[in-house]
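Reopening this one. Same input as before:
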Amino acid sequence: MSLTLYFHPLSSFCQKALIAFYENDTPFTPHLVDLGNETSRADFLAVWPIGKFPVLRDAARDVIVPEATVIIEYLDRFYPGRTRLVPDAADSIWDLHVRDRFFDLYINTVVGKIVTDRLRPDGECDTFGVAQAKAQLQTALDRVERDMASRVWAMGDTFTMADCAAAPALFYADLIMPFGGALKNTAAYLDRLKARPSYARALKEAEPFLKFVPQES
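Same output, byte for byte:
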C-alpha cells in the first residue's frame, strides 16, 4: 500500500486528516504514533524530525506530506475520490482556505491552549492566557453560529475540507466549553458532522482515549 499515515486518533488535526481518508475510502496504512514511547517517538522523528502529526508518506511518489490541510489537498489532487474536498472553482478556493484556517487557528488551536493549561502542574497555570483564549473561542463560535444559520456545511451545501477542519475543532470546543443552548446552529452543525460516516468513524477510534481530555469542571 502506497500511503502511510502517521497519527494518533485523539489528535484533532489527525482526525481532520482521517476524515478525508474515510470520506473517500482511500486505502492507507495507519501508523499510530505514541510520543510517550521512546521507540515510537524515535521512529516517527526519523520520518519527520519536527515531531508533529499527522504526517503522510507516499512511497509510490517518494514524498513526505506534513500538516492536515496539506495532506487533504494532496489526497484531493493525487488520490481523488467521490467527494472532492477541494473545489475546482477559482472563485471559491480562497473562501475554502479562509474557513479551513478559521477552524484550525481560531477554534482548534485555541482549544488546545485551554486543554494544555488544564494539564499543567498546580501553580503553573496561565490564568490570564486561558481567559484570553476563552474570549477568543467565544468570538469564533459566535461567528460560526451566524454562518451556520443558513448553511448545511461550512461552504454551503457541499461537504469540503473546511468541514474536515470543523468537525474535531467543534467537538473538542463543546467538550471543554460546552455550547449549551446558546449556540443552537453550531450545535446542530456539530450533530450533522458527528453523523457523517467519515467523522463518526474517526470519532469512534478516538473514544478509548477521550478520558485523557480534561473537560470543563
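So the earlier flakiness isn't reproducible anymore. For the record, The domain at 90-211 is CATH 1.20.1050.10 (Glutathione S-transferase Yfyf (Class Pi); Chain A, domain 2).
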